Amino acid sequence: MQKRILMLLGVLLLVSMRVLPASAATPCDQPPGEPITFEQDIQINLVFIGYDGAIDEADLLDGLPAGYLPLVRYPQFYGLPGRDLGLEFHFSYNVLYPDQRFEDAFFSYLTSIATAGDPTEFQTHYNNMLANVLDVIPPVLYIDAPSVEKWLTAVGHKRLGIDPKHSYTIFFINWYSRPDFQFHVYTKTNEIDPDTGYNFGAERASRKMIAWGGTYGYTWFYDLSAGPEAWTDNYYVDVLDLDGNGTEDYRMPPVWEYAAGGYRDPSALSNDLGLITRFVGINLLFTSSPLYDPLVTAPGLGGGKVVHVEMFEDDDASSGLDWIDTAYIYQKMRQFEPYYRWNVALEDNDPIDDAAERAFRIFAELLSESDCWDPYGDPYAELFCFFDGNMASYVPDYGPHDYVGKVFAFNTTAANLGPHYGLLGFSDDNWIDGTQSYVFQFDSAEYRDLGYGFSSTTVHEFGHHIGLSHPHDGYDSAMGLDYGSSDEYYFAWSGDESDTVMHYISLSNSFGRFDRANMHRYEFAGFLNWANGLLDDILAHPDAGTVAPLLELAAQYRCAGVAYFDAWQYQQSARLARASYQVTLLAANLLGISTAELAPKLRIVPGAAPHEGDPIRYPYN
């Protein structure tokens, strides 16, 4: 053991010589044992292209927050405080109106890359509404969304004097105000499902969009003169309450519907764009809160992260092994968190064993029997409690310091899913305090006909498991509000129109720039707080002097990580924060100091959190 520790120390010393920048001397000392809050000033640029005096800045800015304090969301559903992540963001707002030359260049660029076609299915639906103020007429321009984002990031920021690497920007676009206006939608057609080869962006009318961002930088654009579209239902102007529950499903209509006799009073436009800025841009994309605590999935000293998939064959006519690519899953997770050693493993249970089949039938409500779900009062808990109680029968042992994420995949049929048909998967919690537990996912011939295999679902659900929220639901820290894309926040569906595997539109199979910045910040602050929590005990130990070189190395890593955080180089900041914690943990282990207190501390209380999965969103599929 001592030999391995000395080898690890040697590796850490070599790494430190390669990665520590000159700025590592930045003062970064914190009182040992004290919680640390890392603060960052963030400028949010709001750029209005083509709005020509239509924006009331007071209405726009009045509802925007001064800052954001992210926390872990899911424990709140049990009446528990979500962990403070040790991050605090302070916002300043920079409102810009590009000149005529900029606008001419931008709309000329849109025209130059567009392909003309017929109106989309949902533009036709809009035309058939009784209350629409105009009809969408052909030709409609189909414009590649990532290309537009790239132009705005590279060319637009430069012309406006914005630093795209150290600020966030929303470009609000209104082509309708110009005489050269053409009806248009945005597309993304360059990714296919890795298992089925299905191209959602090319094949689905419901994937023709009005917004996009997060591919090339901290930029998102939102164009109310595009569409109308399916994903936010802003084509549907005849009805306010789509689901009939008595609450208006608040949507932003096409910009021309902000008119006398239109869907929305024109005076509401500035406030509506403020709502988009706050409840989509800030809360869901730029500085979001994690669904689960990312540190729960952190491996121990020298350990790695494992995605272990148990496949259950519940369909005699197919094999789930044909519809999952472990190398693909590995690549996506490795790209997202490259500072971990990753492993993706797959075991096939062919056919499904009797005990697992019975649990699955109970979960699917095809078998009405009492079982381990009874104390939870919901058969939806059956898969969790069954596998939790029988884990050793399915998942093998890994290294003692590895974190093993357990994924249970069912290759099944529509009939065997019962009322859960349409459910692709869910990342479950422990039904006690909101800590993540296991991932469950489902595929069938019917799902594959719609374009869905296991691989993208695995990446999506494991993204939840390690902490990420959807881009259509989240937390507003100033209001203390957790919300989803329904009722007064229905417009939050527009957050899906961004580059992330965590959205529902299946246009991206990777973690985008917004995902990476958020996760790396969570882990940067988390690891440094964990390390700082150990220092009190280490310094109080009578043999603390024997590990002084390790503490000095940990301090160098800490200071370098803070410097990278301040410079918005978040991946490096997370890598170095983890290194600081690992060295501090090594010092504690050498002194025989227990680190059990570092486990998440949550007060267990009775509660009934909402347990929902990630469905195929009907009717758009």
Could you describe the 3D structure shown?
This protein is α/β, with parallel strands linked by helices and 621 residues long. Helix content is 32%, strand content 16%. It contains 16 helices and 17 strands. It has helices at residues 2-19, 57-62, 100-113, 121-127, 145-160, 200-203, 269-286, 326-336, 354-363, 382-389, 414-417, 445-449, 455-465, 513-540, 548-566, 570-590, and strands at residues 38-49, 67-68, 87-96, 115-117, 140-144, 168-173, 184-187, 211-213, 219-223, 305-313, 342-349, 403-412, 423-429, 436-444, 474-476, 481-483, 614-615. It has a 6-stranded mixed beta sheet, sandwiched between helices. A hairpin with a 5-residue loop joins strand 8 and strand 9. Helix 3 packs antiparallel against helix 5 (145-160), helix 8 packs parallel to helix 13 (455-465) and helix 9 runs antiparallel to helix 10. The model is unreliable at 1-7, 13-17, 22-26 and 597-607 (pLDDT under 50).
Oligomer state of the chains in this structure: single chain
The tally of strands reads 17
Cα(first) to Cα(last) distance is: 55 Å
Average predicted local confidence, pLDDT? 93
Proportion in helices: 25-40%
Spatial strand order of the main sheet: 2-3-1-6-9-8
Counted by DSSP, the helix tally is 16
Report on the biggest sheet.
Answer: 6 strands, mixed
Poorly predicted regions are 1-7, 13-17, 22-26, 597-607
Going by helix content, strand content and strand pairing, the class is alpha/beta
Judging from the principal axes of the Cα atoms, what is the shape?
A: globular
Percent in strands: 15-25%
